[in-house]
Amino acid sequence: MRTTFRCTRRLLLSLALLASLGTPATAESVIEFYRRTPVSLQIGLPAGGGYDLYARTLARHLGRNIPGNPTVVPKNMVGAGGVRAANYMYNVAPRDGSEISLNQAPIIVLPVFGDPAAQFDPTKFTWLGSMNKEVASCGVWHTSKISSFNDLFKREVTFGASGTGGMLAHHPFAFRNLLGAKIKVVVGYKGSNDVNLAMERGEVDGACALFVSTLETRWKDDWKSGRLKIIVQVGTENHPAFGEVPNIFSYAKTNEERQVMKLVFGQGVLGRPLFAPPGIPADRREALRKALLDTLSDPAFLEEAEKLRMEINPATATELEGVLIEFASYPANIITKAKMAIGP
Fold it and tell me: Is residue 323 part of a domain?
């Protein structure tokens, strides 16, 4: 009897120990989790460009606004203009809130176009928000002999890009395929920074995906002096910084063309979006969303952003989700024509 009691007692103690060891991580509070867990910020673009600048500046301040004050470690995961990072976040990254990512809008909407390389559903990412709503532009170097967007219909012009994905390539492709501009896209550069340097060296005539924030930082002297000439702005609304520069939507001849253009060129509203993998715990999701918005209004962050001439115009997670749902609901014929427009 005494032996049986001791065996039973040992069994109960063993079960209690196993139960304590098997307590799921999600039982931790948000502050407990982030107190012991650093956050990786995967940047889908190369170092040295505008996305990298925004992400690294954010990383220096974000942890201060996350419960537990974790260290936020920025990392560049380069490949296919951002597709590699998006695929990683959807299929490989842990779904516990320890990894977040910043990527470019055109990569996020690739699945809408049926691109087989994009192995993710953008509507299922855990959206955190965006650092700003962007109006993009395209510009040419002063040696190109191009003085206006209309000149693109008169002589062949070369634009540089990293690959066939992203605004660097999508916008000039669409100018050519939708409107008939005489554009040749040269791919193979590592990112926007290398494309811009190629433009300075005379290897290409122009570049796209030039945001106001980038022009005010990397290109301010060239832009203000006229060495870099902005010939078209690309957004659903005009940006005052571009003055009288024509908007690409003014070239739409029919309502159908305008719808196609909105799908191709209206992605700037997504700006510089941040997201986590699908299905992270709800309390960590809400903590990260709040931390992002708090950081984007944090005086210390805004002071640094102003020094770096970064434009901050946040969008909420709900706004981003609404845009992505709208894009996914477009009629098949519009999606097909938009897909053809951005293809090489």
Answer: yes
Structurally, the chain folds into a number of domains equal to: 2
| 147 and 259 housed in the same domain | yes
Nearest CA-CA partner of 102 in 131, 137, 80: 131
Contacts of 153 (CB under 8 A, 6+ apart): 179, 180, 181, 182
Predicted confidence (pLDDT) per residue in 253-295, tens digit: 999 999 999 999 988 889 899 999 999 999 999 999 999 999 9
Q: Structure tokens of 271?
A: 């700006």
**Residues 165, 242: contact at Cβ < 8 Å?**
no
The pTM of this model reads 0.76
Tokens of 24: 């799921």
Whether residue 137 contacts residue 211, with contact meaning beta carbons closer than 8 Å, is answered with yes
Is 341 part of a structural domain of the chain?
A: no
Domain that holds residue 235: 136-267
For residue 85, being part of any structural domain is answered with: yes
Q: Looking at the structure, do residues 165 and 94 belong to the same domain, yes or no?
A: no
With 0-12 / 13-18 / 19 or more C-beta atoms within 10 angstroms meaning exposed / middle / buried, residue 204 is buried
